[in-house]
Amino acid sequence: MKRITSLLLALALCLGGVATAKAVDVKVKGNFEFAFGRASSEGYEDRRAAFGVTNNENDSLQGDEWHARQRSRVQIDIIASEQLRGVLHFEIGDLNWGRNGSGGASGGALDADGVNVKTKSAFIDWLIPHTEVAVRMGIQPLALPFAGPGGSSPIFYADVAGIAVSAPITDMFSVVAFWARPFDYYGTDPSDSGGATRRYDETDMFGLVLPVKGEGWSVTPWGVFANVGNASNFYHYYYPRAGLADNSLQEADEAPAWWAGAAVEIKLFDPLTFGLDVAYGRLNKNDLYLAGGDNKEYGTRGWFIDAALNYKLDWATPGIFGWWSSGDDAGDVEDGWMGRIAALGGDMGFKASSFGFAGSNGRGTDDVISQTGAGTWGVGAQLADFSFIDPKLSHTLRVLYYQGTNDADVVDIAWANLRSRFDDVYLTDKDSAWEVNFEHTYRMYENLTVYLEMGYIHLSLDDDVWTGLSGDATSDDMWKTQLLFKYAF
Question: Does residue 124 sit in helix, strand or coil?
């Protein structure tokens, strides 16, 4: 029955395309991604279990050192004119070969059955008549400006429902404003006994981006305000650790939150380029408390700064980069303030490396330390895109050192309950790591690229901080080798 329904749907789409072929232009693009690899997890299982990480897609960190997975994406652009188009973007996967499950993760087992087609985007783009003001409405990719390592915002880069409006003011200056609703937890606001709780089940975001561009430089200030409803599920999205709960929801309503920053790019001295990001965020205290009877409200406030300097040569691009993000302070935590900047959405993440952070080229294992870099600082150097033999084959060598910025004394308070969804390992200012990435890219065909990623992490955790807690204070090394295939059309 499932296959018959799929065939009927495909036929309907084809007939619809024939019937409207004269009215619209339909373009299709997308990609297929495959990842095969092996990564050691010895010494990391206990660390992650201690932080409550029990269900993560990184198979290599769940005891399966060998993984095979795939993902497919198809985007359909339905173009009526230069002023109007609609976009549908579908995703199948991630599919882990041989595994079945629920929702979008199913379909990798025998017979390949599973409900695994997901909506990536569904929006329309249109221009206000007789103006250059562009409007995008619907579920869409939305990102804050970012100029640092990897070029992806660790604070917000995600698919979200909303409306974005962009308007050019001058040749140098434009304005982008958006409203997004990442959470509306309940479908209705009933007046029953739970009505007071459900009344504040939304989280709304309002953002303003002000790009200023000159010849060889750009400065992009931005700001976001959000009203976080107590029953909107944002807290459990960002702090999902068991034992972290909402308290007295019927007596409170919303917590205001705001983020502000700027992205700076300088290309005046091309081939020497420079990127800088500065951001600050604050989520006010509001009925979030730690298990154990302290009944204390918690909020977050923190900084994130990074920079990258690259020099493009004919045969390679050497570069250096670094970042600093504020961490939790024991005294502030006692007063109910966590010191790591909160992430609104982390689909892309901080791409400082391809193993410890979120910089993998495909569906391989990455962000095994952190997806956002919050609560850490680090420095790195890389030699990117160099080639020895075939110009189709290039390589990148990267070396990093990073350390936590979280006060080690926080561990003695309630460390396990303070783990963010995006932090696989909580690093204190006494914990550090060395990481090496060696990546190879082969452009086999115009549309097919093969990546070989190799990574190594030496993690040093302080025995005095971690001994005696659940999870051993181990510092075993970790490595990965994975082969990725990406067909883009």
Answer: strand
Give exposure, 433-443, as e/b (b: 16+ Cβ within 10 Å): bebbbbbebee
**C-alpha–C-alpha distance, residues 35 and 28, integer Å:** 24
Could you tell me which of 149, 421, 181, 144 has the C-alpha nearest to residue 279?
Answer: 144
Distances (CA, A) of 465 to 205, 335, 368, 395, 410: 38, 22, 21, 39, 10
Q: Which of 130, 23, 17, 121 is nearest to 83 (CA)?
A: 130
Model confidence band, residue 107 (pLDDT cutoffs 50, 70, 90): confident
Evaluate if residue 21 carries a pLDDT over 60: no
Minimal CA–CA distance to 225: which of 263, 260, 253? 260
Strands 393-404 and 254-269: unpaired
Residue 196, helix vs strand vs coil:
helix
The string over 24-42, giving b where at least 16 C-beta atoms fall within 10 Å of a residue's C-beta and e elsewhere, is eeeeeebbbbbbbbebbbe
Using DSSP's 3-state secondary structure scheme, residue 13 falls into helix
Look at 390 and 63; give whichever has higher pLDDT: 390
Q: What is the mean pLDDT of residues 313-329?
A: 95
Instruction: List pLDDT tens digits, range 417-439.
Output: 555 666 678 889 999 999 999 99
At residue 444, the 3 state secondary structure works out as coil
Cα gap 382→301, rounded to integer Å = 31
The answer on pLDDT for 41 being more than 60 is no
CB 125 within 8 A of CB 91: no
User: What are phi and psi for residue 372, nearest 5 degrees?
Assistant: -115, -20
Count CB neighbours of 179 within 10 A: 13
* Reduced 3-state DSSP string for 51-67: CCCCCCCCHHHCCCCEE
What is the pLDDT of the chain when averaged over all its residues?
Answer: 81
